[in-house]
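Ticket #4471: structure export looks truncated?
Reporter: QA, pipeline team
Priority: medium

Steps to reproduce: submit the single chain below to the structure queue and open the exported record.
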Amino acid sequence: MKTRRRRPRREIPYWLLAIILLGVLFAWLITADGNYAIIFRALRQGVIVTLWVSFVAFVLATALGLVVALGRLSKRRWLREVATFYIEIVRGIPVLVLLFYIAFVGAPQIVALWNAVFSGLIESGWFPAMSVRDFDMTWRAIAALMISYSAFIAEIFRAGIESVPRGQIEAAESLGLKRRHVMRLVVLPQAVRTVLPPLGNDFVAMIKDSALVSALGVQDITQLGKVYSASTFRFFETYNVVAYLYLVMTISLSLLVRGLEMRLNRSQARK
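Actual output as written to the record:
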């Protein structure tokens, strides 16, 4: 007589229930307390800026990270050396330091290089002369976050690509497919399923690190909170709202990433 295997009993996530309860209570406090309601209205525009900076920087970092990962796995040694050099250097620099470097060193150097290379065309009126003010601080912050996270994302892509069985690559090559076709049609579709959960975690981390762009005066949640609390001296209430807004974004995204990971695991188990 066969015995049925019992399914593992799902435990109630009390930590999630506690977080939801605190979120609902704080949302009620924002609507009921006039001070919290005013602070929330003052900071809600910063949510859009935070999400915009994080999303654009993450998309660009993902594209750059994929290119660097492919360079790291290239058969050409000089490409591997350049990609490895880039990854090791960028990962060793704190995000805030890189943010200041791109904003106050990189941007002026790019302007100086542009004006020097195209000086003749600028004098003849074909090209406009550039100034440092032409580089918006928001885009400097996006560039810094892109460069910083691209090194970590490159390692995620490298691990995902290397997780594809070598036999599948050899089988595709034996059918006459070129290396770029093997990468596009065989390797990357499988690697993407592997790297999606860690990429989601990196996006959550980028939302938190986007608070550093307030050091450049970008009008994100942290910067607006800093300005409002300094003018009203309501530091306790203001930073409660700031923390609440970040928690709503990061916990919601973390739950989405966790659900995606569970779904991918179930689909792989069925196979």
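Status: closed, not a bug. The export was complete when the record was re-opened. Leaving a note from the reviewer for reference: The chain is about 80% helix and 0% strand.
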